[in-house]
UniProtKB/TrEMBL annotation:
NCBIfam families tied to this protein: 2A0604s01, secD
Lineage: Bacteria, Bacillati, Actinomycetota, Actinomycetes, Micrococcales
HAMAP family attached to this UniProt entry: SecD_B (MF_01463_B)
Annotated organism of origin: Cellulomonas avistercoris
Residue ranges occupied by any SecDF P1 head subdomain domain in the UniProt entry: 199-303
Name of the protein: Protein translocase subunit SecD
Pfam families cross-referenced by the UniProt entry: SecD_1st (PF21760), SecD_SecF_C (PF02355), SecDF_P1_head (PF22599)
Principal subcellular localization: membrane
Membrane topology: Multi-pass membrane protein
Stretches that traverse the bilayer: 325-342, 349-372, 378-400, 428-446, 452-471
C-alpha cells in the first residue's frame, strides 16, 4: 500500500503537475548556472574574510530555503563569491543570490499610487529657478513618524516624480540614509512610499515562519500568515514602535519592511505588541507567505554585491561518473546477493526481495522529494545510497541469525521466528538509531556535497526500518507456515542438521535414533563403556538401557525387566504368584 500510494502520487504529478519519473540531478551531474559576485562594503566598512564567510552562510540559507538543493557556494580569491545553482533556477532564486538585502524597518509617512504625479517636475525653467528645499520645517522631530519634519519639499518632489510602474524603478539599490526619510517603490509596482528613518535593523529579527493563521481558540482561519519574532535586542524596539503606530491613522499606522531599497511588505499595526512576536496577515498565498518569511529570515547581509557575471556551466562530473557510481552500487548489490544465497540458501531470497523493496521505496521517495521540495541527487548522494545496501543487509542478517539461534535451542520454526524477531528488533533499532544520528550530525555540520551524502544515508536508514518491520518480518511469518521451511528442507537454509540442532527421537526397546544422543548411546553399547544414569535430556527408556549396559559391563546381574506405565515402573511377576 505504501509503494502504491508513493508511485500513484508521482504518476498523478506527471499528469496534472510538473513531476517527473526521474529525480533531478545536482550541479555535479547536470550542470547549471554560475553567478560571480563582487562584495561591496558598507559605508566606512571593509570586506574581510569574516564578512565573506557570513555572506556565504546567508546566501546558502536563502538558496536552501527556496527549495534548491545541492547548490555550491564558495569564495574565490578571498574577495569574490561564486554561486553555482543546478539546472535552470528561477529568476526569483537568482534574485535571492544577487540581492544585497540590507533589511530595514521604517515607519510609513506617505503612501500613494505607483504612477508619477502629473506635472510633478514642472518645466525645466521652473526647475532651474526654484529647486525644492531639503530643509525640514522644524528644529527636531517629535518622533520617527513626524511628517512635518521628514517630508521636506525635496522629498515630496522626489515622491511625486517617481513612477513605480516602470520595471527599471523596481530593481532595488543601495539603502538610503538610515537617519533621513527615503522614497521607495513596493516590490510589485502597486504603490510608492515616503518612509521615515530606520527604527529596527534586519539583524534584530530572530525567526520568521509562514503557516495558516489561528484564532485565539486555536481554530484555523484558513488564511496564510507570516509569524515574526524579534531578538532580545529588537523586542523593546518593536514594542516602542507598535505603541506609537497603534494610535495613528492610516497610513501612519503602518511600518514598512524594506529590502534592498524596495518595500516588500507594509503591514498595519492593530495593537501594541509587547513580547516581540508579531503576525503579518493579508492576501497571502502559500508561496507568497513562504517567500516573505524567507526574506525576513535571511534578509540582512553585512555587505552588498555587484554582479560580475552570470553564465551556464556544464556538469563537472557528468553522466560517466554517475554510471560508474551506479555500476559500483550494482556490483555491491550482487556481492550481497551471492553471499546471502551461499549462507542462507533459499532464505537468502528474502534478503534479495527486501533489498528490491527498499530500492523501490528509496527511488520513489527521492523522485517525490525532487518534485515537491526541489531535491537534487548528487554523486555523494549516490554514495550514501550505496552504503545503505550494507546497512539494510545487516538488519536481515541479524534477524536470520536470531532465528537460527532459537532453532538451536529446540524451538519450532514458528516460535523461533517470533522469539528471534523480539530479540533482533532491539538490535536493529539500536543499530539504525546510531546510523541515523550520525547522518543528522553530518548533515547539520557539513556543507555542499557532504550534506547530500548525509541526507541519503539518513533517508535509507529510515527506509530500512520500514522494510524490516512491514515486509521482511511479515514475510518470514508467512514462510514459517510452509512445509518447505517448517520441516527444515536442506535447501531452505534452516536445515536442523546443518545448524547442529539435536533431533534425537526414541526408537523403542531402549533405543534412540536420529541425532547426537543416538550416536552417543550406540557408541556406549558397542564399546561396553558405562553411561551415567540420569543424564540430562535422556528419556526414561534411555536411562534404563544405559543402566543395563553399565551393569553388564561391571559383571553384575541385571535387574528384572520392567514395564513403564504412566512413568511408574511395574516389576515382573514374582515367583509363585497367581497372576
Amino acid at each position: 500500500m505504501l509503494v502504491v500510494a508513493l508511485f500513484a502520487s508521482i504518476f498523478a504529478g506527471t499528469r496534472w503537475g510538473d513531476a517527473s519519473l526521474t529525480p533531478n540531478l545536482a550541479l555535479d551531474l547536470e550542470g547549471g548556472t554560475q553567478v560571480i559576485l563582487q562584495p561591496v562594503p558598507e559605508a566606512q566598512g571593509s570586506v574581510t574574510s569574516e564578512t565573506i564567510n557570513q555572506a556565504i552562510a546567508v546566501i546558502r540559507q536563502r538558496v536552501d530555503a527556496s527549495g534548491v538543493a545541492e547548490a555550491e557556494i564558495t569564495s574565490q580569491g578571498g574577495d569574490k563569491i561564486v554561486v553555482g545553482l543546478p539546472g535552470r533556477p528561477s529568476e526569483e532564486t537568482l534574485d535571492l543570490v544577487r540581492t544585497s538585502a540590507q533589511m530595514e524597518f521604517r515607519p510609513v509617512l506617505v503612501m500613494g499610487a505607483a504612477a508619477a504625479t502629473p506635472d510633478a517636475a514642472g518645466d525645466d525653467a521652473a526647475a532651474d529657478d526654484a529647486a525644492p528645499s531639503d530643509q525640514p520645517t522644524k528644529a527636531a522631530p517629535d518622533s520617527p513618524s513626524d511628517v512635518a519634519y521628514y517630508v521636506t519639499p525635496a522629498v515630496q518632489a522626489e515622491f511625486d516624480a517617481l513612477d513605480c510602474t516602470l520595471p527599471e524603478n523596481r530593481t532595488g539599490g543601495v539603502p538610503g540614509d538610515p537617519d533621513k526619510a527615503v522614497v521607495a517603490c513596493d516590490l510589485e509596482g502597486l504603490a510608492k512610499f515616503i518612509l521615515g528613518p530606520v527604527e529596527i535593523p534586519g539583524a534584530d529579527i530572530a525567526t520568521a515562519t509562514s503557516g495558516l493563521g489561528t484564532t485565539s481558540t486555536g481554530a484555523s482561519t484558513g488564511q496564510w500568515v507570516v509569524n515574526l519574532e524579534f531578538t532580545g535586542k529588537g523586542t523593546p524596539k518593536f514594542t516602542e514602535v507598535t505603541t506609537r503606530l497603534a494610535s495613528q491613522g492610516e497610513p501612519l499606522n503602518q511600518f514598512a519592511v524594506v529590502l534592498d531599497a524596495l518595500v516588500i511588505s507594509a503591514p498595519s499595526v492593530n495593537e501594541v505588541i509587547p513580547n516581540g512576536q508579531a503576525q503579518i496577515s493579508g492576501s497571502f498565498t502559500r508561496e507568497t507567505a513562504a517567500t516573505l518569511a524567507n526574506q525576513l529570515n535571511f534578509g540582512s547581509l553585512p555587505i552588498s554585491f555587484e554582479e560580475q557575471s552570470v553564465q551556464q556551466i556544464s556538469a563537472t562530473l557528468g553522466s560517466e561518473q554517475l554510471q560508474k557510481g551506479l555500476l559500483a552500487g550494482v556490483f555491491g548489490l550482487l556481492l550481497v546477493v551471492v553471499y546471502s544465497l551461499f549462507q542462507y540458501r533459499t532464505l537468502g531470497l528474502v534478503t534479495v526481495a527486501s533489498l528490491l523493496v527498499a530500492a523501490v521505496i528509496t527511488y520513489g521517495v527521492i523522485v517525490l522529494l525532487s518534485w515537491l521540495q526541489g531535491y537534487r541527487l548528487s554523486l555523494p548522494g549516490v554514495a550514501g545510497i550505496i552504503v545503505a545496501i550494507g546497512i539494510t543487509a545487516d538488519s536481515f542478517i541479524v534477524y536470520f541469525e536470531r532465528i537460527r539461534d532459537e532453532l538451536r535451542d529446540g524451538r519450532s520454526l514458528g516460535a523461533a521466528i517470533e522469539k528471534g524477531w523480539e530479540r533482533a528488533r532491539r538490535t536493529i533499532l539500536a543499530s539504525d538509531a546510531v546510523n541515523f544520528t550520525a547522518a543528522i550530525v553530518l548533515y547539520l555540520l557539513a556543507v555542499g556535497g557532504v550534506r547530500g551524502f548525509a541526507f541519503t544515508l539518513g533517508l535509507t536508514t529510515l527506509v530500512d526500518l520500514v522494510v524490516v518491520f512491514l515486509f521482511t518480518h511479515p514475510l518470514m511469518v508467512l514462510l514459517g507456515r510452509t512445509r518447505f521451511f517448517a520441516e527444515g528442507h536442506p535447501a531452505s537454509g534452516l536445515d536442523p542438521r546443518r545448524l547442529g540442532v539435536d533431533t534425537t527421537r526414541y526408537a523403542g526397546r531402549g533405543r534412540v535414533a536420529g541425532g547426537p544422543k543416538a550416536a552417543a548411546t550406540a557408541g556406549s553399547a558397542s564399546s561396553r563403556e558405562p553411561v551415567a544414569v540420569g543424564a540430562s535430556g535422556m528419556t526414561i527408556a534411555e536411562r534404563r538401557a544405559a543402566a543395563r549396559a553399565a551393569q553388564a559391563a561391571a559383571g553384575r546381574p541385571q535387574d528384572p525387566p520392567t514395564t513403564v506405565v504412566d512413568d511408574e515402573p511395574i516389576s515382573g511377576r514374582p515367583e509363585g504368584s497367581d497372576r
